[in-house]
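# nightly structure sweep
# worker-07 picked up a monomer target from the shared queue
# config: single-sequence mode, recycle default, output format = structure tokens
# input follows
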Amino acid sequence: MPPPHHAPARPIHRNAPAPAFIAGPPITHPAHFYGRQRELSRLFNLLKHRPLQNAAIIGPRRSGKTSLLHYLHTITTTPAAQLRPAQTQTWLPAPQQYQWVFVDFQDARLGSRPALLRHLLTHMNLPSPQPCTLDQFLDTVSDRLRHPTIILFDEIGVAIERYPELDDTFWESLRSLATNQVNGNLAFILATPDAPGKLAQHSGLGSPFFNIFGYAAYLGPLTETEARELINSSPIPFPTADINWILQQSGGWPMPLQILCRERLLTLEENDPSSYWREDALNQIAPFLNQRET
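# output follows
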């Protein structure tokens, strides 16, 4: 059977370059993603051989969980010309054989069981029966899934708390599918601010699905080396004093780090010699630092 078709990664358009620093939206192009090398090594190691193994990415809001999910499914097949020099992408054997399904549970349309099942089948390159019931979904996947497939569940807590159609029966069926029916070709990676089992318990779900995650990547601040790599990506080099100040004030957390770098670059582009940018930048990052203290 030929490998599944993958749409090419979006190029970085030269006539509309991405900003040097991105604060707010998740990082979707791998060339703009920095750090998390230890976590990437561990996560990809779970996916190199069958049976594929499940994992949870756990961290406070704005710690880069969604960006890490995007990076996982783009880095191995993005053309090297679109990456930074020496950026590792040889994480998997035969990466073109892998299928990745990204599910953003903040999209309320995916809170409907039939809509979610159709979304999964479409991105698995499998036919979607009509109507798309849970039984038909399970039959289709168990009969036809032949390629290693990873389902990335972003904001899993939203699914647990808000979508009653995604009940114990639904989650138990996914667990059974991955564990017993597809020869180890299916795995799940969740992004959540808390452990999946704890979230499910708080919401009254008892499904064993939330107990199959044998590895958890806990996202904290970037290492100093990783943070410096991001800072040094500025198209205008920062003075050493500003680099040290940015490292100290951000604590290495991705969101404050991106904001501080963005604000400093702006003043350099405007040839503003004053230091007023620091006060404004501190105001910009305050909500994200306070969030971690509560």
